[in-house]
Structures are given as C-alpha cells and as structure tokens.
Amino acid sequence: MRDLSAIFKAYDIRGLVGEQIDADVVREIGAAFARLVGGPAVVIGHDMRDSSPGLSAAFAEGVNREGVDVVSIGLASTDMLYFASGNLNLPGAMFTASHNPAAYNGIKMCRAGAAPIGQDSGLADMQREVEQGMPESGATPGELETRDMLDAYAGYLNQLVDLSGIRPLKIVVDAGNGMGGYTVPKVFEGLPIEVIPMYFELDGTFPNHEANPLDPKNIVDLQAKVREVGADAGVAFDGDADRCFVVDERGEPVSPSAVTALVASRELAKAPGSTIIYNLITSKAVPEIVAERGGKPVRTRVGHSFIKQEMAKTDAIFGGEHSAHYYFRDFWRADTGMLAALHVLAALGGQDGTLSALTHEYVRYAASGEINSTVGDQKASLAAIKDTYSGRDGVTIDELDGLTVELPGGAWFNLRASNTEPLLRLNVEAADEAAMAALRDEVLAIVRG
C-alpha cells in the first residue's frame, strides 16, 4: 500500500511534481473526490504553473471515470474557483501550490457552495481510498464541459463593492507573475482607478520574486514603485491570488490586522451587530474595534477550515487572518483577497485623506510579525515555554492553537507548531516596540536554546 501522508496536508494536497505528485496519483485523487462529493458535476480550475493544465486534466479524467461530469474553467485564481463553486453550486478543485516554488503543485478542494474540505471533512477518507486502491466503479463516464467564468467573477465582486463613485486613484499592483495578472485587469476594468501593473505576465517559475507577499523581501519592488510613481496605494497578490497585501502611499506595509479591522468596520456599517471572526494571532485591536462598533468578535484557530466552520456556525459576516486571508459571508464564506482589496480602495477613494491616515486608527499595538524557528523537538520547546510562564503572577495561558500566553499589562504571544515543517511560529504583540522586542527576544532565547 502506498503512503501519501507527505502530500495530504491539513487543508489541501501539495507536493513536488514528478516525485510526490504526478498524473497517475492525481487521477486516483480525482476519482476519490468524485466518490466523496457525488454528482452531478465538479468544477475545476488551475493556475499558471507549467504542470497545472496536465494535472487538472488527469484529475478531470478521474472524476469522469466515476460517472461525474466536469466543468473546466481553465485559468483561474483560487477565489475565482470558489466563486464558480458557489455560483454553480458545485464541488470544486483548484490546482495550485499558492506561493510555493515552481517545482510544487497541489489541489485545494471544496464542496458545493465553496464549503471547506479538510482532514476531518473528507481529505483523510480520500487519502485512505487512494492509498488502498479502489476498484473502478464501472459507471458510464461523465462528460467534460469548458466554461469561462472570469466576466461573471469580476461582475459579482463589483456588485458587492461599488467603486464607481470614488475619487480617481493611482494604484500599483504586483501580481508576482501569478494569477492576479489574469484577474486584476478584468476586475478593475472601467473603474476610476489607474493600475500600474508589476509582473502581470503569467509565469509559474516566478522569475522576479516569490509570490508570497507576507515575506518582506517580496514587496520591496512594490514599495519602491509606489514611491516612484506617487501612487495612492500598492497591492500585492500571492501566486493563486487568494491573498492580498497592502502598502500605503509611503510604501509602508498595512498590517493584515488593520485591513481586517477596516473591512470589518465597513461590513458592520452594512449589517450592524453582526459577528466578525478573527484568528488568535490577529492583533488585539481587531476584537476591540469590532466590539466598539457594535459587532460580536469571535476568536478561532488559524486556518481556513476553522474560520469557515465558525462563520457557518455563527453566521458571521466577515473573517480575517494575520496571513492576509479574508473571508466574506457574501462570497460563500470563502476567502478572497480581491474583494478585500476592493474594500480598502473603496474606503480610500470615498474620502480625501491618505491610506496611512485612514488606517492609523486601526493600529494600536506593536507586533513582531511571524517569526519561524527550526527546532528538533516542537513539543519539548512548547513545554519549556509553558513551564517558564505558567508560574508567573497574572499570566494566562490557553491552548486553543499552540500556546497563547497573555502577560499582565496586555502584552501577549502565540507559539504554534507548523503543520508541514519542523518549525515553531512565534507572534508577539505589546503596547510599544520596546516592550514587544523585549518579550520577543525572551521567548526566542528559550525556543532556540
């Protein structure tokens, strides 16, 4: 029996093309997915990686083999696939490895209406079936239909956020040679926004920089261009364009927590008293601002499957993560960086001030950002941190997701293990830079020995 544990992750499938993922295994995964979700059809999209068209075609063959039809939408961002799943009310599969290097590919899957699939909601069952090898069903093969969803996707987003009346803006957009280069021109078509494009050429080798805007080195070009052309803002998308990262008119990063608070405020203005989801690494400013504006803040673990489950349970209108994933009830509770970007631009263009002035009210504390440490024994390091802080007066510790330690005076940190690598991820927040740096260094000294 084969072992596929290396590619079946917590929320998706991902691995090295040719070594861990190839057409044969993907065909079997497609068949297992069809058995999991049933008929009548599955919608499939793919990103711009060289391996994506072939792998998505093999997946479609596996789906068809089980008697289920396929609607292929071709090139797509991940949120465009979620749109297709919601709009067509069909289960979906997106071929992408997001911001991972060119040698990787993967599959993000959802049920009809963009409902999430994770280890506990189907992925583990699919892994077991493919590892064991399931006999072919003998069903009459399904059919393959191709459909272009780009216009419908762009039209839907522009219905949700009306930018037609904003003042003219100049925006730099860095697509990182990813799918933003495909979707941005259509979404921004006809809006009073001058788009200065960077790296819009679809190229899965990522020749300019990694398509991961959360890493500061990958937004240096965007920051420089914003300053050079005197833009009102800059936006960077990751490889599959489901996350967006924003910089202000000075080229300074706007934290995803500030974007979460800004968008939450706009959504609460539309639906007063609604629930807003935030993950436990998001700034404390987010639940404070949500509560101040009459909303109900609800804290969750990190990860889209947890966010989406909590959104469904609480009927939340919006959710945000520290990693620049933003989730909308109006978008089938799925994450879409493009819709978050439109909200930011609508807020900016709806008033006369700068983006830095607009977002200032949403930033209340100093944050470290995510700091990764390679450790040999994650459990031992976490236990050492717990032992160190649990005996201190006024310290509270919870273990919803890793360790979250809150100190007297409001400073806090979260330390959690990576799902996929021998890493511990640290996030620290305090009242000011000096307090944050002192706490950060204290924790890292214990973690790194």
Automatic annotation (TrEMBL):
Locate the Alpha-D-phosphohexomutase C-terminal domain: which residues?
370-444
Residue ranges annotated for the Alpha-D-phosphohexomutase alpha/beta/alpha domain, each copy included: 7-120, 153-251, 259-361
Q: What is its EC number?
A: 5.4.2.8
- Gene3D superfamilies referenced in this protein's UniProt entry, alphabetically: Alpha-D-Glucose-1,6-Bisphosphate, subunit A, domain 3 (3.40.120.10), Alpha-D-phosphohexomutase, C-terminal domain (3.30.310.50)
* Gene Ontology MF terms in the entry: phosphomannomutase activity
- Do the record's keywords include tRNA-binding? no
The cofactor named in the record is: Mg(2+)
Keywords from UniProt, A to Z, are: Isomerase, Magnesium, Metal-binding, Phosphoprotein
Which family, according to UniProt? Belongs to the phosphohexose mutase family.
Give the protein's recorded name.
Phosphomannomutase
| UniProt organism field | Kibdelosporangium banguiense
